[in-house]
Amino acid sequence: MPESPTSPANPPTPPVSPLNNAAAAASPPVSALLRGSVLLLAFLALQLVFFSSLLSFPSPRFLPTPGNINTTWPNGLPAEAGACGAGLVYVYDLPPEFNHDLIDDCRSLWPWYSFCPYLDHGGFGQRAATLPVFLDVTPNASLPNWYNTDQFQLEVIVHRRLLSHPCRTTDPARAAAFYVPFYAGLDVGSHLWGDNATVADRDRAGLRLLRWLRNQTSFRNSGGWDHFITLGRITWDFRRHGDDDGWGTRFVLMHGMENVTRLAIEGDPTDPMDVAVPYPTGFHPRAARDVRAWQRHVLALRRRTLFGFAGAPRAGFRDDFRDVLLEECEDAGRDRCRSVDCTGTRCTDNGAAVLQLFLGTKFCLQPRGDSFTRRSLFDCMVAGAVPVLFWRQTAYDQYRWYLPARSRGEEREWSVFMDPRELRVGNVSVQEVLEGFSEQRVRRMQERVVEMIPRIVYASSPDGLGGGMVDALDVALDGVLRRFRERRRRMAREERLPGHVVDPPVDSKSMEPSSANSSSKPVLSHASASTNNRLKIS
Asked: Where does this protein have compositionally biased stretches of type Polar residues (predicted)?
């Protein structure tokens, strides 16, 4: 999928009414015109009444107001004993300006088109079953699990899930972790390309949020070390240095964010408070059985193309590495390589095109985008293709809680790494390297990728996937709770009172949750005694 979109040259042109292109054969009589005018006015009046009544009904895209629902289990624990052994999560009921108002104002979030369709169904977007482009790409049984999801919807998706999470508590005194549901990405995104947007506009909501947060007892008690937040855009959109007219907001660098754990679709590997989590893809399975059905499907496919690439050529970038890959693809021929041009919003408007490409290829090329990461990495893996990487920060140094990358041997189990410098000078070619793998080796890598699918997708069910299978949110919450538990132990050993001194940087590697690298049970257990995602296709 494409990276952070760049400003299109022109907004979409409204369709021209066919009435403007037709010429009347003859002028109707005056009496007919009068009767027609009366009928037209009556029809318009009825339409106005009808649409006004629709506005009184809540839209399915809007999240329930946290203060009006009770999703906690009796006594704060789910029915399964020990499922919340690591502690409960408190979700702040923020003033609506920080989340709900942004949803309500979805028509104004983007300068070129309405963002409302991408916020439907709690951030998943429109159902694939309602979009003809998906009908020939996914099997009918899996179609209900697919949506046309925008890559920047992490904040909405996580908030929706945590509101009904079995380990949520409405009593802050019982919480081990505090979630701050500020839609920072949606907010700053609405000010990045506006003609009149200023740095003050980009910083305003973050400053107000932190002012509000510092007045909360739970935050004052800990200084924020047991708080976490999601960032629906890459971390660099929140790291503007100084007050100049640079890119993005200063939110991550503001006073009050020093100790807050940040779950972002791309983090700064040098900042231990940043934790990279998967980009949302279009696959949101309802239950473990849906995941297994999809895994069986992608493993059974006959992939006729060796490798593929989805992305946009960038003429404005001198010596862009994508040009090298596009040339490699062209030289290989269509029987060995296929590509999808994601210029503008082609791929965000039509996620089926990228899915179809990767379902038919054995490998997928993953160069860096505007930053080191791309959603395309996860689209590729969900489709069962093996990613070909060119920078370690694209995956290995980013998603440590999700992707096996503790050693070069583990990396080679599910991916291929090529030195971009060697490709540039022509010492190696993509086709030659990939054709050097035996069919058995390619199959083993595909099976390893498919085995990892549950951990990199966000379930649509409020209860997660079940059946002992963990999804991306389970992994994130497990990691957050482990991190906070370790901090409490360290402070107890050092007899340090929370909140008085900013904690020294944490070692994010030593506080990883149970992952694909480990067979240990996660802190948050599930209905099944089995807690791993080992591939089961029986």
From this structure: 511-538
Cβ neighbours for 349, distance < 8 A, ≥ 6 positions apart:
148
Residue spans per domain, the chain = 62-115+150-280+458-538, 289-456
Tokens of 252: 């991550």
pTM of the model: 0.80
Angle between helices 154-163 and 116-123 (to 10 degrees): 30
Residue pLDDT, tens place only, 121-169: 999 999 999 999 899 899 999 999 999 999 999 999 999 999 999 999 9
Beta-ladder partners of 126 = 148
Alpha helices by DSSP H, 62-111: 100-104
Q: Give the angle 427-432-435 at the CA atoms, nearest 5°.
A: 160
Q: Which of 144, 94, 105, 100 is nearest to 122 (CA)?
A: 100
Cβ atoms 123, 156 nearer than 8 A: yes
Dihedral of CA atoms 404, 407, 408, 410 in degrees, nearest 10, equals -40
Q: Report whether 191 contacts 246 (CB < 8 A).
A: no
- Residue 323 near residue 342, CB atoms below 8 Å: no
Q: Report whether pLDDT(239) > 70.
A: yes
Q: Are 308 and 338 in contact (CB under 8 A)?
A: yes
Convert 188-217 to b/e letters by CB count within 10 Å (16 or more is b): bbbbbeeeeeebebbbebbbebbebbeeee
DSSP 225: T
Going 437 to 440 to 444 to 450, the CA torsion angle's sign is: positive
Q: In sequence order, what E strands does 273-407 have?
A: 274-276, 305-311, 337-341, 361-366, 386-389
Cα gap 147→458, rounded to integer Å: 12
Task: Specify the pairing of strand 305-311 against strand 361-366.
Answer: parallel
Determine whether domain 289-456 maps to CATH 3.40.50.
Answer: yes
pLDDT digits (tens, 9 = 90+) for 14-69: 333 322 333 333 334 434 444 555 455 555 554 443 433 333 333 344 444 433 33
**pLDDT band at 351; cut points 50, 70, 90:** confident
Are 214 and 255 contacting, i.e. CB atoms less than 8 angstroms apart? no
User: Which of the four pLDDT bands, split at 50, 70 and 90, describes residue 316?
Assistant: low
Cα separations (Å) of 352 from 127, 277, 304, 377, 380? 12, 23, 18, 15, 12
Nearest to 144 by CA among 157, 129, 132, 130: 129
Q: For residue 358, how many other CB atoms are within 10 A of its CB?
A: 27
Q: Which amino acid appears at position 261 of this protein? A: T
Spatial separation of the C-alpha atoms in residues 504 and 521, rounded to whole Å: 28
Statement: residue 7 has pLDDT above 50: no
Q: Tell which wins on pLDDT, 176 or 523.
A: 176
CB 366 within 8 Å of CB 380? yes
